[in-house]
Amino acid sequence: MTYKTILATAFFAAFTASSAMAMDLTTGTELGTSMEQVQAKLKEMGYEVRKAEMEDGEIEAYVVKDGKMSEIYVNQQTGQVSKIKSK
């Protein structure tokens, strides 16, 4: 293997790993129908839950993962993520 091949392989592996971490939570991901279930699932997925509250009929969680802050909105009826706002 050449130096360029090794470097390209390492770059691809790092990019794939970071993309996988960022994509572990998407709209439609099922987290639960109660605030406690949502918080527990997010913590299990490696998120630090800073705050969770009910707003406009949805569970809203403020989370941090890998230094990135996000707001996660979960439909209380379906338990699925309806919206993700990254900051």
Structure annotation, total helices: 2
As a percent range, the share of strand residues is 25-35%
Order of strands, widest sheet: 1-2-3-4
Helix percentage: 25-40%
What's the β-strand tally?
4
What are the low-pLDDT stretches, counting only 5+ consecutive residues below 50? 13-23
Q: Span between N and C termini?
A: 41 Å
Structural class of the secondary structure composition? alpha+beta
SSE run: HHEEEE
Quick one: overall form?
globular
The gyration radius over C-alpha positions equals 16 Å
Largest sheet, described in full? 4 strands, antiparallel
Number of domains: 1
Average per-residue pLDDT, rounded, comes to 83
Organism: Hwanghaeella grinnelliae
Pfam families: PepSY_2
Signal peptide: 1-22
InterPro entries: PepSY
Annotate the secondary structure layout.
Blueprint lengths: L2 H20 L12 H10 L3 E8 L2 E8 L2 E8 L5 E6 L1
Antiparallel strand pairs: 1-2, 2-3, 3-4
Structure overview:
- The chain has 87 residues and is of the alpha+beta class.
- It has one domain (26-86).
- Helices cover 34% and strands 34% of the residues.
- The chain is built from 2 helices and 4 strands.
- The chain has helices at residues 3-22, 35-44, and strands spanning 48-55, 58-65, 68-75, 81-86.
- Strands 1-2-3-4 form a 4-stranded antiparallel sheet, covered by helices on one side.
- Strand 2 (58-65) and strand 3 (68-75) form a beta hairpin.
- The longest helix is centred in the first third of the chain and has 20 residues, at 3-22.
- The model is unreliable at 13-23 (pLDDT under 50).
- It holds the Pfam family PepSY_2.
- This is PepSY domain-containing protein.
